[in-house]
Amino acid sequence: MHPIENLLQVICSYLLPSACIVCGIFQQHTLCLECAAGLATEQLSNYECCQQCGLPLQINEISEQRCLECVTHPPYFDATYCLDRYEGKLQSALHQLKYQRRLACAHGLASAWGQLMAASLSNLHANYLLPVPLSQEKLCARGFNQSWELARRIHCASQINKNPYILLRHHHTQHQANETRINRYKAIEGMFYINPQYWESLESTTVIVFDDVMTSGATLNEIAYVLKDNGVSRVINWVLLRTLRPA
Asked: How far is C-alpha 211 from the geometric centre of its chain's CA atoms?
């Protein structure tokens, strides 16, 4: 975040009331103490999760520390850290950000990430933090990339370079929300590419990819494939909300 923007946000937080992005109560912070405590109790990091894709593990998977799918069909990404489940307390705020263009929710969601995830990730070493990109057509239609609006507000180590211009995406008109897992993987093939001016700078680096929602993992897996094909050594996913397996 730009220093001036950060200063203005701090000033506004003291002078103007904020509404909690979860309960809607007006108070100083965008995430009230009660809701923050509830999220801390429920967040996915409290559970035994697959180290590679972030899904909560079943009993027979705990010894491997990876889910059966990741053991059987290893993805290209190396690790995934998720804040909360998709059906949890933050879903409404994310929907308001994405579909109602309430950019104020980005501050609250980034604040939630900072309160609940920053400490556990403080020792993670990486070179870049990249948002999952939108195509130019989708970006023009929405007006912003929600993953970038979140990623750029997240505080991380100073050596991590946040950059929304390295990873690019072709336009694709097919909607994936109701597609099967296999169809999601097929539909996303070849959709991402690296900006040519960054080809050499990615060699032997560690890259964090930030996504607002992880469902099947198809998008993040394709991105990890493209990054590693361009010389990246390690790919780590940071995900705001994770869709869980059916009960």
From this structure: 3
- Which residue, chain included where needed, has tokens 């000033």? 11
- Report if residue 22 sits inside a domain: no
Does any domain span residue 145?
Answer: yes
- Enter the tokens of residue 6: 């950060």
User: pLDDT category, 174, cuts 50, 70, 90?
Assistant: low
pTM value is 0.88
- 47 within a domain of the structure (yes/no): no
CATH of the domain at 139: 3.40.50
Contact 83, 110 (CB under 8 A): no
Q: How many domains does the chain have?
A: 1
Across 3-20, average pLDDT: 57
Sign of the alpha-carbon torsion through 67, 82, 131, 216: positive
Output the pLDDT for position 242. Answer: 97
What does the alpha-carbon distance between residue 189 and residue 180 come to, in Å, rounded to a whole number? 15
Distance, in Å, from the CA atom of 75 to the CA atom of 147, rounded to the nearest integer, reads 21
Q: How far apart are CA 24 and CA 32, in angstroms?
A: 9
CA 64 to centroid of chain Cα atoms: 25
Which one-letter amino acid corresponds to residue 195? N
Task: Report how far residue 113's alpha carbon sits from residue 7's, in angstroms, rounded to the nearest whole number.
Answer: 19
50: which 2 tokens? Answer: 């697959």
Q: Is residue 231 in a domain?
A: yes
8 Å CB contact between 188 and 171: no
Domain that residue 115 falls in: 75-242
Cβ neighbour number for residue 234 with a 10 Å cutoff = 18
40: Cα within 13 Å, side-chain hemisphere: 14
